[in-house]
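[Automated response] Your request has been received and processed.

Submitted sequence:
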Amino acid sequence: MNHLYKYVLTGCVFFSQLASAETVSFDATQLAALNPGVSDSFQVNLLGSGFTSGTDGGGVNFTYDPAVLRVDSLELDPANWDFFADTGLIDNSAGTVTGVEFATSSLSLPSDFVVGTVAFTAVGVGTSILSLSESFGIGGWALLGDPQDVSFVDSSVTVSAVPLPASFWLLTSGIVGLFGATKRRKEG
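Generated structure:
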């Protein structure tokens, strides 16, 4: 019987942690729809989800492969972060964005919200991991001054070489055909 209590207690702790799984991630739906080629620019939202009790704010850092991506800008959502908003430092040579911090004076944020939007440009072929971590400049994620245990979900972006359009190959075959016809005419 003693073992049964251990299992029940362990299950309750596990499921209570699942119920309050606050996460910060890049928008997976937007990332899945991307198919950028070199020189393409695109934007991806940074999302907070599962904040059922709300949040006062927090901070994030993220890294990326600077041989594949460049961060052009980061804009925090002004509707959510009315008290404090710092877009941090973008270092494209190191592939880092650090010290992105924000706070709200309102406790009425929905449980799922947009932190901000990151604008990228693809600069090379390959896959870049977008690795998120917490920034503690203003004390980390908190609700009414109490720290929140937030999970950060990594993502990736794959940049492919831009293929030549079908119209190029059609035009090329037409020109080759014209040269061939002209040569036959001169020989015949």
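Summary generated for your ticket: The mean pLDDT is 85. The chain is about 25% helix and 40% strand.
If you did not submit this request, please reply to this message.
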